[in-house]
Amino acid sequence: MGESKSDGGDGDVTATKLKHGWHELVDDTVRANEGLVRQQADKWARADSDDFDDLCQEGRLGVMRAHRTYDPARGKFSTYALPWIRQGMIRWLQRNS
Q: Is the Cβ–Cβ distance between 73 and 66 less than 8 Å?
């Protein structure tokens, strides 16, 4: 009597939309914290090299890692993300010294 069978397609579409939304949220977070990343890269970049862009990339990865584990109860995101940003930059400098 008009029963319809679900092949699970709707769930797949919803999961894809959620995943896409998650990626947009992460991208927005990275863009919103670009100034913090650039400020830290400027502090850590060696004067005689072209480290700045690489350090910025490591900082962005740090923002992504922080975003994955962030709990709003911990306070401001930028305060929480700062150690993750620095850690990525310091490790990059250690690997490339």
A: no
